[in-house]
Specification:
Elements: E1 5-6, E2 13-18, H1 23-26, H2 44-60, E3 64-67, H3 68-75, H4 79-89, H5 92-95, H6 97-108, H7 112-121, E4 123-124, H8 130-134, E5 145-147, H9 156-159, E6 160-163, E7 166-169, H10 175-190, H11 192-195, E8 200-203, E9 220-224, E10 227-232, H12 238-250, E11 256-261, E12 275-279, E13 282-285, E14 295-301, E15 307-314, H13 315-323, E16 329-332, H14 337-345, E17 352-355, E18 358-362, H15 366-374, E19 378-382, E20 399-403
Parallel strand pairs: 1-20, 2-3, 7-8, 10-11, 13-16, 18-19
Antiparallel strand pairs: 2-20, 4-5, 6-7, 9-10, 11-14, 12-13, 14-15, 17-18
Helix pairs in contact: 3-7, 4-10
The protein binds citrulline.
């Protein structure tokens, strides 16, 4: 039986969820890409090739790769899941009852893989039968889309994140990503892979307005030994973190949450764009944003079902204590100030660790990759000239479902 458990950032990676994008990227244009959180349009064929190369590299390392689109199609075989998801994504309130109801009926009859494509890639007015439009006198065609594409499903890291024995299905901060959460809720509720499993759902699976209590997986680093490192970023708020921390403590899955305050801007939208864990005592950091002595907060259980906020202490001290190591090594982004700013923007810090000291990253980040190499970190490179335009690297594009803890990992 599959065991979904993520015990660390650096233990052997065993199962990971990726999303191979196609339709959503075909629909990215200069007029909509910024709103959809991409900095440019992509050469789709090359982006798909790059993604295939990434997935193949992981498979070659004996890592089990699950694809979100396939999981969603399998989930949609279940009528209850299909009805729930169609109501969530195409509600009467979104489209008006006259159109919404016949549209949902038409979609419900489609083959599951086609429906999965529309629910991730978006649905246009041109794709639906004309008879459906006749039911309504005025058609709301200001945009080509009935539902907009979700190109950021590519970054599976963010929408749901596994922390020890459970998962948080994240309420996303930006409107362009909020419908992703419904797709993930359906997968975790109805896909057979998650049915027989005992796993905890920490946060985000309720049908409510989460308001400011947003949280994204790129801000969550499961550094091990019951500690979670979380970035307070453009996307993850203290409100969201308080809910997650309370749940982690309640389920006895963590006993410490360390908080890193980040500037609220796009270049460092999540903690993992400026900091990742490479080996037991080694992190990559972008020094413009992360410094060893920066004061960080800590949350622990208060013994009464709530959380206790501690006074700030230097990041390095908190990490050394949490990881039980005498000295943390920080590998800073490579090159001069111009090169390092460019390489950070192109996700040099955002690498995916496969096992202690072995990471995957984009080949274009020459200066930083050289530094990893010199520091004894093995970097397996992939091309990412197209994928990187979405502003995410190998860590962002992967959601680990099964990874070893720090047991047996030595400094
Ligand atoms: N963990 C990450 O940093 N994910 C990258 C997300 C990029 C995406 N275009 C976004 O703006 O949400």
């Amino acid at each position: 039986m599959e065991r979904h458990y993520v015990g660390s950032e650096i233990g052997q990676l065993r199962t990971v969820m990726l999303h191979r994008p196609l339709l959503s990227l075909q629909r990215l244009t200069p007029s909509n890409c910024q709103e959809l959180l991409f900095d440019d349009v992509l050469c789709v064929e090359r982006a798909v090739e790059e993604h295939n190369q990434f997935a193949q590299l992981l498979r070659d390392q004996n890592i089990n790769v699950l694809l979100l689109g396939e999981l969603l199609a399998e989930t949609l075989q279940n009528t209850e899941a299909r009805d729930w998801l169609l109501s969530a994504q195409l509600s009467d309130y979104r489209l008006g009852p006259t159109l919404a109801s016949p549209l949902r009926e038409w979609l419900a009859d489609l083959p599951a893989d086609q429906l999965s494509r529309y629910l991730t890639g978006g649905l246009t007015w041109q794709e639906i039968p004309e008879t459906l439009l006749k039911s309504r006198t005025i058609s709301p065609m200001q945009s080509p889309f009935i539902t907009r594409p979700l190109p950021n499903h590519l970054f599976t890291r963010d929408t749901s994140c596994w922390i020890y024995q459970g998962v948080s299905i994240n309420p996303m901060a930006k409107p362009a990503r909020q419908r992703e959460t419904d797709n993930l809720r359906a997968i975790y509720r109805w896909h057979p892979l998650f049915q027989d499993n005992q796993y905890i759902n920490y946060y985000g699976n309720e049908e409510r307005r989460y308001d400011h209590a947003t949280l994204e997986g790129g801000d969550v680093l499961v550094i091990g030994h019951g500690t979670v490192l979380i970035g307070l970023s453009e996307r993850t708020t203290i409100q969201g973190v308080e809910f997650l921390a309370t749940s982690l403590f309640h389920h006895q899955q963590a006993n410490k949450v360390i908080l890193v305050e980040l500037p609220k801007h796009r270049a460092c939208m999540h903690l993992d764009t400026v900091m990742t864990h490479l080996d037991i005592d080694t992190f990559s950091i972008y020094p413009e944003i992360i410094q060893a002595d920066m004061p960080c907060w800590m949350l622990t259980p208060d013994g009464k079902g709530g959380i206790k906020h501690h006074s700030p202490r230097p990041l390095v001290a908190l990490l050394e204590e949490a990881l039980a190591v005498t000295e943390i090594r920080f590998i800073t982004t490579g090159g001069d100030i111009f090169e390092s700013e460019r390489e950070q923007w192109n996700d040099a810090n955002n690498v995916l660790t496969l096992r202690p000291g072995v990471v995957v990253g984009y080949d274009r980040n020459l200066r930083t990759n050289e530094k990893y190499d010199k520091a004894g970190i093995k970097i397996l490179t992939i091309r990412g000239d197209e994928l990187g335009r979405g502003r995410g690297g190998a860590r962002c594009m992967s959601c680990p479902l099964e990874r070893d803890d720090l047991e047996g990992v030595r400094s």
